[in-house]
Amino acid sequence: MPISASVDAWRHAHVFDEGNPLAERNTRGALVLTSVMMVAEIAGGWTFNSMALLADGWHMSSHALALGLSVLAYGAARRFARDKRFAFGTWKIEVLGGYTSAIFLVGVAGLMLYQSIERLVAPTPIHYDQAIAIAGVGLLVNLVCAWLLKESHVHHHDNSDHDHPHHDLNLRAAYVHVLSDAATSVLAILALFSGKLWEVNWLDPAMGIVGAVLIIIWAYGLLCDTGRVLLDAEMDAPVVAEIHEVIGTSPVKAEITDLHVWRVGKGKYACILSLAVQEEATPDDFRKLLGIHAELVHVTVEVNQHRERQKVIPL
Question: How far is CA 314 from CA 209, 221, 310, 311, in A?
């Protein structure tokens, strides 16, 4: 029998993530809605001189770009899923899309802060009625987009026992963009109504500052989560403790001398494990023990035989 035929049992594909077609489709729909509303809000903000509305429009422009990146990331991950150049699949393309979206969030928050402070220093008259109408439509669009992306979270969670909805970091980035835009719209409407009813004109740019701070907080959390995956900083993940527990309770006494764990999909991990043993054992013995943890989808085990030196007692 040829060698290649006898080793087929040890070969496996390196596609560790099944993708999220529903999220990709819904993100594309949210992109179209957001782009249309972005143009309306920016035009309305300049025309009616509302900083809160203009900030919301510029913020929405970053969302349109970020949602576009999310769609491209889904498409690229799907297209190159079986490309052999990617040693552990293409899931991190989606994570990279989420990381880039978080950077855009920080950028637009900075722009909002600058423009809001500028309007506080040099206030200008605001056409409240028109601005409130456009902000209301913007909020409605944001809520529809948030519902689309939230539905994608729920359905994807239902299809995977081991996935938390936020493990799709590309989808989470899109959702955070839409959610932060909805929050900005709410703040804009509150500011505009307050200015119209009580002539509190400074509240309009003040709400722009509040919205910018809120966006920075959300962006920071997203940057931390996506950056941790991209840098393979996963050694504090629960699965690492589970590996230690399995080896510690193994019928064959073994000591972990080297361990590397990193994520290769939503809730899926690869690991390289080096062990020192004193009795006869094979890597398969430990792979079978680790097989109870379904999130470990690519396991490499090295077993090193270690024999203690016997003391020589002189006669």
Answer: 83, 66, 13, 10
